[in-house]
Hints:
Elements: E1 14-17, H1 20-27, H2 32-38, E2 43-46, H3 51-64, E3 73-81, E4 91-98, E5 106-108, H4 113-121, E6 126-133, H5 141-148, E7 151-155, H6 158-167, E8 173-181, H7 193-205, H8 207-216
Parallel strand pairs: 1-2, 1-3, 3-8, 4-6, 6-7
Antiparallel strand pairs: 3-7, 4-5, 4-8
Helix pairs in contact: 1-7, 3-6, 4-8
Amino acid sequence: xxxRHPADADPPLLVACALGIERFALRGGDRGAAAERAHPxxxxxxxxxxxxxxxxALTTALGEGAVTQRSPVVAxxxxxxxxxxxRPGDVIVAxxxxxxxxxxxxxxxxxxxxxxxxxxxRGLRVHSGLLWGSxxxxxxxxxxxxxxxxxxxxxxxxxxxxxxxRRAGPRPVAAVRVVVDAPEHELVRIGTVRGGISAFRxxxxxxxxxxxxxxxxxxPWR
Length: 222
């Protein structure tokens, strides 16, 4: 639009993940010509593993101008499913995230309806609920304890990512994770490589859904 100031432009989407393989998957999604015209490529930020690394990376990115102070943020990558019956390749859309400290508050994800619809329309198995944050890899009996506390999945970075994003300013936030292991499909077991490949393929396929979510956000956020 003539005369439009860059500050008035729609803020770019920031997608944060911890691992190089997650970043590779998220940058390799098939955007398609229509998506290319509709939106610029999002910033895919590799934060490093763990809540402290995620919080530092988000704070730095939002303060250095790679994205704007109004940019929506999606925490993505792999996670561990907690509910019986989950399997690699299932998708978790957080209704809220919560950090690992006992007094950590929840960060609600209020704008996730379009994400849920778009993922289900792709034929994926999608679960929604509390995504728990941890500072270590969760296995065995601890999974059952977290599930009993109300969580559907756990990872190490989402809660810290969204907490840092909201602390930097009001913005839409979401956490969308792909289950790479689950109670009956732990990666430490022989024969679970196929499950990891399934999770990678699903993660690679969902980037266009993030574009749809970005476009769907309400104007007051922009």
